[in-house]
Amino acid sequence: MNKNLGLSILLVLLFFMLPLFVQPGSALANHFELATGKKVLIVASYHQGYKWVDEIVRTLEHELAGADLTVFYMDTKRNLDGAEEKAREAFSLYSELQPDAVITIDDTAQSYFVVPYLRDKVSTPVIFCGVNDDAARYGFPAGNVTGVLEKKHYRESISFAQIIDPQIRTVGILYRPSPSNITNVAQIEKEKGSYSAEVIAILAVDSIGDVRSALAEYASQVDAFILMNMTGIVDDNNKQMEGHEAIARIVDETGRVTIGASDWEVESGALCGVIKTAEEQGVLAASQLISHWQDKAIADLPVIQNRNGQRYINLKTMNKLQIQLRPEVIIGTRIITGE
What we know:
The chain is α/β, with parallel strands linked by helices. The protein has 2 domains: 3-17 and 153-275 and 311-336, Response regulator (Rossmann fold), CATH 3.40.50; 31-151 and 277-308, Rossmann fold, CATH 3.40.50. The chain contains 13 helices and 13 strands. It has helices at 3-17, 32-35, 51-63, 83-97, 107-118, 154-164, 179-191, 208-218, 243-254, 263-267, 278-293, 315-320, 327-330; strands spanning 39-44, 68-73, 101-105, 126-131, 145-149, 170-175, 198-204, 224-227, 257-259, 272-275, 304-305, 310-314, 333-336. The chain has a 6-stranded parallel β-sheet with strand order 2-1-3-4-5-11, with helices on both faces. A 4-stranded parallel β-sheet has the order 7-6-8-9, with helices on both faces. It has a 3-stranded mixed β-sheet with strand order 10-12-13. The two termini are 33 Å apart.
């Protein structure tokens, strides 16, 4: 890799990522009285036990201390076909609770629940978070809806991977074609001209067999693979796999640098990534709701977007790949030991 490319990678990380390690200020301070006695319904697209959702819910519980929170899980990561029925159940719960506010997490809850049941149909304020797609696709913002978009740091993750392994010049994308991953692919398609490595292939996979086929076809062309959320792909016995199990299997199959976009993906075995945080989504969503409770109209609260990132590296995977851990990699990086 030439010196100019190396310098450009370092500049991307230093000027754009290092300031992002400071998380936004807590919305909790001095707002306990505002939240006390308020009923808030949280509708999560995915299931309890899914780390991203659990961390957002935990953050909301902290930031909205004093409020009475009820959480409903749509479980669409594992069962998208049941989304409409789950949305009906969520609306039945909403009608029963008559909450003071609704917070919805991730895209499926917007398309199946908020848009058909709540957007401009009720007066209840709705705050979304973790939304990957363009807010306009859902008609957001609306008279009673605003919230927080989620964008992943693919550009910065590739640059970080190139600091770890300067030989990386090409990348491939492996993804399960779920609604959120399809949106993430659209982000990559839009951004890839500005990446510091060439995107050679974007490959949808539904099984470990598909992964093997993709690796066999592109092994000689791709230096590193970005792994998108693989929850729900099937193993060789046609059994659905949890995300962490699927990532670990794929990392073993590739035998090369793998890049994750979520902390649990690096914790599961992907070599590295610059990671957006669930906590930031929860803090920003709570801040939006607190602002509304301070007499600011939902229509006056703009849709906002996460900007913070944390560098992660999996030391066990690094050792397997026989990559040396250099000082410029360690600075500002969370090291996952893999133990």
